[in-house]
Amino acid sequence: MDKQKPTLAIYGIQDREEYEHPFYVHDHNMAFMQNGEVKWFLQQERISRRKRDNTFYLHLKEILKEKKLLTGDYDLVFVDNVVGRTFLTRRGDARFEAPINLNLATGLEKGKCWWFGLEKEAWVLNHELAHMFSCLPFFGNFKENSLLVHFDGGASLSNFSAAIYKNDKLEWVEYHWDLKPYSTIYNANALVFAIIGARLPEQNSVPGKFMGFAGWGTPRKELKEWLFQHQFFHDIWGKTSVFFKGAKNDFGVELKSFDLKNPFIQDVAASLQEIFIEQILQKLRELKETTGTENLYYTGGSALNIVANTRILESGLFKQLFIPPSTEDSGLALGAAAFAEWEKHGSVKIHNSYLNNWGIGNYQTVYNSETIQQVAELLVDGKVISICNGFGEAGPRALGNRSILALANSKKLAKEISMNKKGREWYRPLAPVALEKNTRYFTGKPEIHPLSKFMLLDFKVLPENREEIAGAVHADGTARFQTVFNGKENPFLFDLLEYLDREHGVKALINTSFNRKGEPIVHTDDDALVAATVMKLDAVVLNGKIQFIQT
Fold it and tell me: Which of 272, 335, 389, 413 is the most buried (most CB within 10 A)?
């Protein structure tokens, strides 16, 4: 690779079937980096408006034309998938074929590439490493003596992989499918799909829904043993009566349907969640003991499980824990580009989470104190305000630039936003956003972990403070805070929270992603106006300017 050249990284492996919805492959994305800095980042769903879009191979040529990148002088890197290592556009004018290996490489592998009329040098980075290196754009170089872990539904040759980083070298510890039964709980388990009432097109939304639902129940030892005994009822597709019979015979519980308000069903969900947590903690303890590593970089779709993340942190196994905001497949191109830039320059710059800038390169958030005051007064008056400022967030979580905000003290308002405006299920919680000092106030913790700025942890809210954020506290008394640590992270959101606290004693807001159920987070100001109108929100802030929605 040439140190003088930028890097273009693509995750766009074609799915096995052409369904109307993503199946094995999802979240196509692309990143362009130069001298260790992200210049452009694109999550395909944001511009196509198709949730979890996996059709990059259909649109790549037109997308590259926008930035005149069809024949640019850059290093080209692809990310593979468990379904294959070949990238092929529909017309065949771009084709990349990677070598087929029985073992995971520890770096880039050169392949054969035909690129819009020319032969071009190109490389592949395995899915596992792309996940791990998605940490670099947000945390900088790996710390010495660190454990790098990826855990998801399936990567290149594993669903779980671990490597150690010592003396500036990467070495695989293990990679395998041994933990597949546990990641499968969230994306391919018949019982879980039946409980949630999910169909195949909704499979990528099941993990978030099930994690939210599990918070309504209580893990029970006898249920965990029962679920293990029956292999989590993972194969009862179309024959859920097997589960009902087991519940009656073994627990005397009469079930005719999956009533989500039934305590037994809730406890089953909580027990499955606890099983997942126990298994990942057990594996991490084993790796800590065998490697002696001090820090953990944790990635993959499973790292979006905030309950498990919190337990990992609280276990004290590692001195420091790092999880990137785009830890699932939406960050694969970022990881691949970061790996190439790291190899070329020895380092990658640290970025904030607002990297989704394709097609919105001229967006700048300009506001004044009057705007902050006006938005604050609207919120205090019980209005629901949406935000579309600057670049969008990398990853699946809205962190203040593509958010819907409202007072957090009303369960009624929270229900109105979540169920009526967004179309979400009753059991799914909303999250609060607060300044660091106020996250400490609500939780009683003297220090708040930095991962809280990415909404990757949950916290027990002090009972005496729960009413203040009743609309954002889950059934189990926890809340998934987004903590704003300083004004540099998000100036508009920081100033708004500061004003609300100082002038009105409002210490937190609801922060939920700016989209309706089944739709991607809004990207452009046009998207924002359409979505705000459809959801009948009160106003939208577009790059610092308030626009009221006519209903």
Answer: 335
Instruction: Please choose, from the candidates 111, 118, 74, 73, the residue with its C-alpha nearest in 3D space to the C-alpha of residue 93.
Output: 118
d(CA 522, CA 515): 6
| 480 and 377 co-located in one domain | yes
Give the tokens for residue 422.
């967004």
Cα Rg, the chain, nearest whole Å: 23
Helix (H, G, I), strand (E, B) or coil at 361: coil
> What average pLDDT is seen over the chain?
96
Q: Are residues 101 and 223 in the same domain?
A: no
Task: Give 276-294 pLDDT, tens digit per residue.
Answer: 999 999 999 999 999 999 9
pTM (whole model) above 0.85: yes
Give yes or no: residues 376 and 424 share one domain: yes
In a domain, 30, yes or no: yes
CA torsion sign, 355 to 356 to 358 to 361? negative
- Other beta carbons within 10 angstroms of residue 33's beta carbon come to 30
How many Cβ atoms sit within 10 Å of the Cβ of residue 197?
12
Domain count of the chain?
3
CATH code where residue 212 lies? 3.30.420.40
- Round to whole Å and give the CA distance between 325 and 450: 12
Per-residue pLDDT of 449-475, as tens digits, reads 999 999 999 999 999 999 999 999 999
Q: Strand, coil or helix: what is 399?
A: coil
Average pLDDT over residues 335-362: 95
**Residue 500, Cα to own-chain centre: how many angstroms?**
28
- 170 DSSP 8-state letter: E
Examine the pLDDT at 187 and tell me if it is beyond 80.
yes
Q: Which residue carries 């670049």 as its tokens?
A: 391
Q: What span, in angstroms and rounded, lies between the C-alpha atoms of 472 and 122? A: 47
Cα 435 to Cα 107, 321, 499, 504, 523: the distances in Å are 40, 21, 11, 14, 25
Task: For residue range 255-279, list pLDDT tens digits in order.
Answer: 999 999 999 999 999 999 999 999 9
Give yes or no for a contact between 132 and 335, defined as CB atoms under 8 angstroms apart: yes
Concatenated DSSP letters of 375-386: HHHHHHTT--EE
* CA 538 to chain CA mean position, Å: 28
Answer for the pair 267, 253: CB distance below 8 angstroms, yes or no.
no
* Bridge partners, residue 43, by sequence: 29
Helices 263-291 and 306-315: crossing angle in degrees, nearest 10, is 40
H-run or E-run covering 59: helix 56-66
User: Are 509 and 405 in contact, with CB atoms under 8 Å apart?
Assistant: yes
Look at residues 288, 321, 354 and tell me which one is the last residue of a structural domain. Answer: 321
Task: Collect all residues with Cβ–Cβ distance below 8 Å to 458 and sequence separation of at least 6.
Answer: 306, 307, 310, 474, 478, 479, 480, 481
User: Chain-centre distance of CA 3, in angstroms?
Assistant: 31
What pLDDT, on the 0 to 100 scale, is given for residue 200? 82
Structural domain boundaries, residue 526: 369-548
Distance, CA of 481 to CA of 474 (rounded, Å): 11
442 and 300 within one domain: no
